[in-house]
Design goal:
Helix content is 63%, strand content 8%. It contains 6 helices and 5 strands, in the order H-H-H-H-H-H-E-E-E-E-E. It starts with a helix and ends with a strand.
Length: 308
């Protein structure tokens, strides 16, 4: 935008506006880079370090604990099964209906299942020890998360505060730009009226007309009179006391945003208030004459919602 302003001419209204908008965009870009840098340092980097470090370790230990619990459940099921088989084998046989050979086989099976029960109990004790040790490691890691959560909660609050400041800065930058553009419109508005007055001045067609239109002192230029418009308006200087509303063409309008008057020719506005507006011949289409009680002045159209 700055390069384009230099090409169009930094002294022209369009070039000046381009420079103002370009400067605001530069400030917005600087605010955005500052916000991104602050968010990276205060929030993203600590969170990434936690996820790639402590949380990865905790997740690994929790998976190991889950596997230890499955091993413990398997050992308990094996021991239960061995005890059930041992009890069945140790049942006293009925010597009247059972032959001696079957009794010997039953005693041998009972001894085998007793050995199996001892092995299952030994494996259960070892597995229980490993499970308890892993549970303690996981518990200590999870207890350490509480302090980590406090730190990350503080980082999150700082991130939200940084983002709030960023949007507030952007809003203020755009509000300042809007006021600057509104003042520039007023300057263009004044220059337009001077140009229109000069361009629409009718050339005297006869000495009689010239004598009627020219003032007595030839050194003072003649300002043509536009019907219904005071000479001060035609010259680009608005005197609210001299502006008379037209017989028809006035409308009600609701103010959309607050507007601060750049000079005495403009009317300051407050959001949501109702005013009466109308246009004068030769006015810039971006501006209207606004009335609020006994106060009058130019108001920008972009700040109004025209009502039927």
């Amino acid at each position: 935008m700055t390069e384009a302003a230099n090409d169009f001419g930094p002294g022209t209204p369009y070039g000046k506006t381009l420079i103002k908008v370009g400067e605001t965009q530069r400030r917005l870009g600087a605010a955005e880079r500052e916000f991104i840098h602050s968010a990276s340092i205060n929030f993203l980097t600590p969170l990434r370090n936690f996820l790639e470090g402590d949380w990865r370790t905790i997740s690994k230990e929790r998976r190991i604990l889950q596997n230890r619990r499955l091993d413990l459940d398997a050992c308990k099921a094996r021991l239960k099964k061995a005890k059930a088989a041992e009890a069945k084998a140790a049942a006293v046989p009925d010597f009247q209906e059972t032959r001696p050979r079957n009794y010997v086989l039953s005693a041998s099976a009972s001894a085998l299942w007793s050995d199996e029960v001892e092995k299952a109990e030994h494996e259960l004790r070892l597995t229980q020890t490993e499970f308890d040790r892993q549970a303690e490691v996981t518990r200590l890691l999870l207890e350490g998360i509480s302090s980590t959560h406090v730190n990350h909660l503080r980082c999150l609050h700082e991130f939200v505060e940084s983002q709030t400041n960023y949007y507030a800065q952007c809003y203020q930058f755009m509000l300042d730009l809007q006021k600057q553009l509104g003042s520039s419109k007023g300057e263009i508005f004044s220059g337009t009226f001077v140009g229109n007055a000069d361009s629409t001045s009718p050339a005297p067609s006869s000495p009689a007309v010239a004598a009627a239109t020219l003032p007595a002192v030839p050194t003072i230029p003649v300002v043509p009179t536009i019907v219904g418009v005071p000479n001060t308006v035609a010259e680009g200087v608005l005197n609210p006391n001299e502006v008379k509303p037209p017989a028809s063409g006035t409308r009600k309008a609701r103010v959309l945003y607050d507007y601060e008057a750049a000079d005495s020719t403009e009317l300051a506005l407050l959001a949501d208030e109702m005013i009466t507006v109308y246009s004068l011949p030769g006015m810039d289409p971006d501006w209207l004459i606004g009335e609020r009680g006994n106060q009058k002045g130019k108001v920008p159209v972009t700040y109004l919602e025209l009502l039927s």
